[in-house]
Amino acid sequence: MAKIDLIDTTIRDGNQSLWGATGLTNGMIHEIAPIIDAVGFHALDFVTSTHLGTTVRYHKENPWERIRRFHERAPNTRLGFLTSGLRFISWETASMGLMELALSVLVKNGVSRFQVVDPMNNMDSIVTMAKIARKVGGEEIVAGVTYTVSEIHDDAYFSACAKKLAKLKEIDRIYLKDPGGLLMPERARGLIPAIKQAIGGKPLEIHSHCNLGLAPISYLEAANGGAVGLHVAVSAAANGSSQPSAERIISNLKAYGHTVDVDEDALARVGEYFSDLARAEGLPVGQVQEFDAAAFKHQIPGGVLGTMRRQLAEIKQLHKLDAVINEVEQVRKDLGYPIMVTPFSQVVVAQSVMNVISPERYANVPDEVIRYATGKFGTPSFPIDGNVLDRIASLPRAKELASEPPMPDIDGLRAKLGRHLSDEELVLRAVMPADQVDAMLANGGGRRSYNPKTKPMISLIKSLAARKDIDYVEVRKDDFSLTLKSDQETSGVSK
Question: Does residue 359 have a cis bond before it (omega within 30 degrees)?
Fold first, then answer.
């Protein structure tokens, strides 16, 4: 029996899996930061470049401020950044210089832990990114081996990958990343000890999703087999397609004789906050899932499933969700069975959505699918279907993308975008539309505080203020009085 570390995923993967990565604003996470700091998590799986982009695009908020202020309010908790190689926010392959600059900006703002994975389990790519992360000041580097199920992905395969990574001095920990929630308890019983033997004394973490209902049990088998870190989310942002519930995992670990060194009172306060927040904002709370054997075919990660639901709802096509999931299985086969992890899970799902809502399969092909099919992300593990590859390669857009110049180096970006720009702004402008960055800057800092318990009152006041038959709204409590009048009149506050 062992002491088990908890890595909290609420703000990053819980948010992405259940709330489409758009559910939390800066003010919402900053408000609860001191209480999260008191829990005693080993680290937070805090942010990815996708979330940085979402902060700008959907909330018009500064993503660097998201990290910086949280770190100020939670100075004792490691903040983690997940990177999948030479890509930052944009689908375009980033230069080594841009990645180094981006990671250095993350460190300056408070990120100290880097989780490094590669969507093809390319160990050389992971090693490269791990070295960059250490060079710019990363204090804890965690290298990921991405789990999937196929004829070639046996215990020996995963153990060999982990062994190669564990030899690198820049890598402090290894983690088995199971984006599809495919790790069955009986598989964990043999695989985890095999990986532990391969990596020697380096700690092993497990990251899985609950969309098949397996992760809570597999986590216990992993802990029994030698894993010392488990990725969890607080109850409101757990289960469903997210990670197992921190509260339940702690209880189960203790029942098995393990110890978890966290402040459970502080954890309860964090759980209550996010439950109140979900209720106030109309966000779905994760539900315990039943086993779904079909998921072994499509293998859609929890975070991508949540984002896909949101995007289908935005285009009023949510009723086609089941059809898209079925199409994912065929598209994955067409594209040579890529491991369903960022960015390939998004590549497959994007094409599947297009195939379902278009009059003909592959009538519309997103740029990222073209880049994948033409080798921009590397060589697929299995050959792409010849007919599909020919169709994609014959598209006029494929020829345009083939001739596009690579992203300029840092000096070229400064010459193009402006030498007066700060590193923070330069990184954003290098990979995001200028109008989105402009809108973020024009918006100022956004709301710096948040209280979910006031949301019903604020909504009521807004609805009353919108009515034409009401001249003013007055709010009173004890010796406090607030009067709100139309724009042409003044508002009064008195005590």
Answer: no
* Ranges of CATH 1.10.472.90 domains, the chain: 295-402
Judging by DSSP bridges, how do beta strands 78-83 and 111-116 pair with one another? parallel
Share of the chain above pLDDT 70, in %: 98
Q: What is the largest CA-CA distance in the chain?
A: 75
Residues composing the chain: 495
Q: State how far the Cα of 351 lies from the Cα of 200, in Å rounded to an integer.
A: 41
| Cα–Cα distance for residue pair 298/409, rounded to 1 Å | 38
d(C-alpha 377, C-alpha 125), whole Å: 11
Q: Which fold has domain 5-281?
A: TIM Barrel (3.20.20)
Integer angstrom CA distances of residue 111 from 74, 81, 103, 108: 12, 7, 9, 7
The one-letter amino acid at 68: R
d(CA 310, CA 285): 15
Among 68, 32, 65, 90, which Cα is nearest to 443's?
65
Please, which pLDDT band fits residue 492 given cuts at 50, 70 and 90?
A: low
Give the CA-trace dihedral at 304, 305, 307, 311, to 10 degrees: 130
Axis-axis angle for helices 344-357, 302-314 (nearest 10): 30
Residue 470 to residues 361, 462, 476, 481, 488: CA-CA distances in angstroms?
Answer: 55, 12, 17, 18, 14
Q: What's the Cα-to-Cα distance from 423 to each of 228, 305, 430, rounded to whole Å?
A: 37, 33, 10
Q: Name, in order, each residue with C-beta under 8 angstroms of 26's C-beta and a sequence gap of 6 or more.
A: 55, 59, 61, 62, 65, 66, 69, 445, 446, 447, 448
Q: What is the pLDDT of residue 490?
A: 47
CATH code of the domain made up of 295-402: 1.10.472.90
Report the 10 Å Cβ neighbour count for 460: 12
pLDDT of 291 higher than 60: yes
Name the segment(s) of the chain with CATH classification 3.20.20.70: 5-281
Instruction: Report d(CA 63, CA 376) in Å as an integer.
Output: 28
- Tokens describing residue 382: 């299995």
Strand partners, 114: 81, 141
CA distances to 1, 4, 161, 211, 299 from 221, rounded to whole Å, are 12, 13, 21, 18, 22
pLDDT band at 465 (very low <50, low <70, confident <90, very high): confident
Check whether 494 has a pLDDT greater than 70. Answer: no
Q: What strand order describes the sheet that includes 472-477?
A: 472-477, 480-485, 492-494
Neighbours of 269 (CB within 10 A): 16
Tens of pLDDT along 30-69? 999 999 999 999 999 999 999 999 999 999 999 999 999 9
Residue where the block lists tokens 């802990």 = 223
